[in-house]
Design a protein that fits this description.
Blueprint lengths: L5 H10 L2 H10 L4 E2 H5 L6 H13 L3 E6 L2 E6 L5 H19 L5
Helix pairs in contact: 1-4
């Protein structure tokens, strides 16, 4: 059985949730506070903090306390492991496409 980095496993688990994917898309345009991230979802700060904690555990987001707020930023190079895995998946898809009529 192929073993994948637990970081990649955590990243895919974090990406399974549409709210967390939307948060990552938002952070792609710059850092934001937890309040700013929660507002478009009509979500409580506690709810958004849980999402952010999972993104931090997956090493996709970092947070920093600035005064009374916590600012979130995408982690540099966070998606390298995911990208590498998706490239493998793409090679598999190409193989499937080439062998479609071989049954």
């Amino acid at each position: 059985m192929v073993q994948y980095s637990t970081t990649v496993d955590h990243a895919f688990a974090a990406l399974a949730d549409p709210t967390r994917r939307a948060v990552l898309e938002r952070l792609g345009s710059g850092s934001a506070t937890i309040s700013e991230l929660a507002e478009p979802f009509g979500m409580s700060l506690t709810g958004m903090k849980k999402h952010i904690r999972l993104l931090e555990e997956a090493q996709l987001v970092t947070t920093e306390k600035v005064g009374r707020v916590r600012r979130c930023t995408l982690t540099p190079y966070a998606f390298e492991g995911i990208s590498t895995w998706l490239q493998r998946l793409d090679r598999f898809a190409q193989l499937v496409e080439r062998t479609k009529g071989d049954r």
